[in-house]
Q: What sequence folds into this?
């Protein structure tokens, strides 16, 4: 039966008929009528017109209509159904390699049919391979046929019906008037939400398909404006909700005996201007009754840890507990050691909390956390488990916050809310967020930026080399290690299989052990090669890491466990194998492990093209960006360009609610509008604001707060 694109709602099947597909719809996140209405086409097919074969051009995707003059199954080589149709101007052969008897019947000689597909020419005449066919009955649809994003088991036909029904039932009344988009062109002001959605699901054939595909059509603009407004409103709402919560006032103590002062005095270096500035920004937040919600961003090696330590000191000086949570055990350990080194001599009681810990050690840690004896707690997400009860947590610091999943961030948030007193929250990240992105996703966060590296760093020189140069690289490693320098070798990341990661790392380890045979450290002891991977027991990991930190291990082969935060200033060479497999910000993070001391450091990106003749365009762009710049902000900007904001923020891993329609690299003007509009709407029309957020974000609103 031909489907009329703009079929009236009363012809759609009742909701119960859809129940078999509910699961598939839920998989797409389409549970409410409004979700269906907001599920927009990826592209469109034009079934509104019939093209005469005599007027057609090779390569066009067209719909033709004609009489079947021949229909038989051929066995020449591969079994196929061959159908010839004549449209009065010419003939066309339709070929099907997969077909059902029912299809054969529908395409019997004498039937009048429509076929839609790509026309191929040839000296035998026109052909179409696997065209869509249907009987030529009824009028042609008046609108373009939408093609929606879908999942396996959910056909376009079923999805279209569901969407049509959802569109008819959903409340699409405007929450803001088209005229509110005053800053924009006349065209923007004509579109209501209802009009825009009706149009985008079933556009008239006279529309420029380009403006639909690149989302520049005013109907798209309306939807983007709606979406951005919803984001801004929900962020603003959670900011205002937080403003009603109460946090302890943590005041900087400037007396000589105060921790904060003693720590500053004892540091082996002076703070950079940027460190001093962000430390002050944080202190000002913590001195208020409102919980801080601040993101501290700074390139790898910018020195965020000491800022965290100073903030912790302010907290402890005021008599409150501080917790520092890191995404991996290694990183937590590193912080623990560093903070211990700085704070323990000052008499601070610090405890350590991770997932696999000896029962006794753990019990004691829990006890001193609960009694308040522990002033600083350092650990992994083991901290957010139910058993952990803080006595009086005043400040929670999350390092590399983007590496925690949404669920973990939410759990921490819930954990922290107790007794009507909320701790201050400081999040740290070495993946700087471009301003546009920060404005949209983190409108609910205050951002402090360390935009200056500590003095005395020599920039890391990056070389991009083909795999074939592997032996040259090994030679260079031997020379470096013989001079007493240390080297990281990061093994290929094979996403599909942790086991493969492991076998690769193990193999490379053996290879490097061979390569280093006979090489001695300057003190005469043989150079050791260590192996570190995620499957190793914690104590083995620790032993290897300690060996590297203390300098016995000259070369550390590892999977990406070293990705975050490890700090060994003597390491001066980083080799990343199969670098083409890594994301840009990941490469930058890895590279940040070297160049921490005064020695000239280098990063070698080894790439291979596998079976392909050359690297993909994006892989080449990434490696080039790495060779071009050491600046984390510039890298972030390029990464955003190459990947788009969705992937940039790791939507896939964390399931964050992302912008579906707006594109921050293009829709700056709409974002500015939404930012200005959100507070006005929340003040003047709170009900409409609530309705708007509910419509667009529904159950996802909570995630945006995480
Ligand atoms: P990140 O911001 O990547 O977490 P770290 O806090 O690990 O960086 O600091 C990197 C290195 O720089 C550490 O060895 C740290 O002790 C050192 N460092 C931090 N601040 C300064 C400073 N102002 N002057 C000199 N060295 C510093
Ligand atoms: Mg760090």
A:
């Amino acid at each position: 039966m031909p489907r009329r694109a703009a079929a009236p709602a009363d012809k759609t099947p009742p909701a119960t008929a859809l129940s078999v597909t509910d699961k598939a719809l839920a998989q797409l996140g389409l549970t409410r009528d409004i979700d269906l209405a907001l599920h927009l086409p990826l592209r469109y097919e034009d079934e509104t017109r019939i093209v005469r074969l005599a007027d057609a051009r090779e390569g066009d995707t067209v719909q033709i209509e004609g009489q079947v003059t021949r229909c038989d199954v051929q066995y020449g080589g591969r079994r196929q159904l061959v159908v010839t149709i004549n449209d009065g101007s010419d003939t066309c052969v339709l070929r099907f390699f997969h077909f059902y008897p029912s299809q054969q019947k529908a395409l019997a000689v004498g039937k009048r049919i429509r076929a839609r597909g790509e026309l191929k020419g040839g000296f035998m005449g026109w052909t179409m391979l696997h065209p869509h066919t249907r009987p030529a009955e009824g009028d042609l649809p008046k609108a373009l046929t939408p093609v929606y994003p879908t999942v396996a088991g959910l056909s376009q036909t079923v999805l279209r019906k569901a969407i049509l029904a959802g569109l008819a039932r959903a409340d699409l009344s405007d929450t803001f008037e088209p005229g509110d988009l005053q800053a924009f062109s006349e065209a923007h002001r004509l579109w209501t939400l209802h009009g825009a959605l009706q149009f985008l699901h079933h556009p008239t054939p006279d529309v420029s398909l380009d403006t639909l595909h690149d989302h520049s059509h005013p109907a798209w603009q309306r939807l983007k404006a709606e979406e951005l407004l919803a984001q801004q409103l929900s962020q603003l709402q959670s900011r205002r909700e937080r403003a009603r919560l109460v946090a302890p006032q943590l005041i900087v103590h400037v007396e000589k005996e105060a921790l904060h002062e003693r720590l500053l005095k004892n540091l082996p270096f002076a703070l950079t201007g940027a460190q001093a500035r962000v430390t002050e920004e944080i202190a000002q937040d913590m001195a208020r009754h409102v919980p801080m919600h601040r993101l501290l961003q700074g390139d790898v090696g910018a020195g965020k840890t000491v800022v965290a330590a100073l903030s912790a000191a302010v907290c402890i000086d005021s008599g409150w507990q501080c917790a520092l949570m890191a995404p991996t055990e290694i990183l937590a350990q590193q912080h623990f050691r560093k903070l211990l080194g700085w704070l323990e001599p000052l008499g601070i009681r610090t405890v350590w909390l991770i997932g696999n810990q000896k029962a006794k050690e753990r019990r004691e840690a829990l006890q001193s956390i609960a009694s308040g004896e522990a002033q600083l707690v350092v650990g992994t997400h083991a901290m957010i488990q139910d058993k952990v009860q803080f006595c009086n947590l005043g400040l929670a610091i999350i390092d590399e916050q983007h590496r925690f999943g949404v669920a973990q961030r939410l759990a921490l948030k819930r954990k922290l809310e107790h007794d009507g007193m909320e701790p201050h929250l400081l999040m740290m990240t070495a993946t700087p967020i471009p301003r546009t992105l920060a404005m949209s996703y983190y409108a609910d966060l205050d951002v402090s930026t360390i935009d200056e590296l500590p003095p005395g760093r020599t920039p890391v020189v990056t070389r991009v080399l083909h795999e074939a140069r592997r032996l040259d690289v090994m030679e260079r490693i031997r020379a470096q290690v013989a001079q007493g320098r240390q080297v990281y070798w990061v093994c290929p990341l094979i996403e599909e299989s942790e086991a493969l990661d492991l076998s690769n790392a193990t193999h490379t380890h053996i290879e490097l052990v061979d390569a280093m045979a006979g090489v001695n450290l300057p003190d005469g002891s043989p150079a050791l090669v260590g192996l570190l991977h995620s499957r190793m027991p914690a104590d083995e990991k620790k032993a290897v890491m300690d060996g590297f930190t203390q300098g016995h291990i000259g070369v550390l082969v590892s999977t990406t466990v070293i990705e975050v935060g490890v700090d060994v200033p003597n390491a001066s060479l980083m080799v990343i194998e199969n670098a083409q497999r890594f994301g840009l910000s990941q490469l930058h993070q890895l590279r940040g492990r070297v160049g921490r001391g005064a020695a000239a450091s280098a990063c070698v990106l080894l790439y291979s093209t596998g079976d392909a003749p050359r690297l993909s365009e994006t892989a080449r762009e990434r490696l080039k960006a790495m060779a071009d710049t050491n600046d984390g902000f510039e890298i972030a900007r390029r990464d955003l360009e190459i990947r788009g904001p969705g992937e940039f923020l790791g939507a896939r891993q964390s399931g964050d609610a992302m912008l579906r329609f707006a594109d921050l690299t293009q829709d700056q003007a709409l974002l500015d509008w939404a930012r200005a509009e959100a507070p006005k709407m929340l003040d003047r029309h709170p009900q409409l604001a609530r309705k708007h957020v509910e419509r667009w974000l529904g159950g996802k609103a909570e995630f945006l707060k995480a």
About this structure: Residues 147 and 156 are 7 Å apart (CA to CA). The mean pLDDT is 84. The pocket of magnesium ion (ligand 2) is lined by residues 304-305, 399, 565 (CB under 6 Å). The radius of gyration is 31 Å.
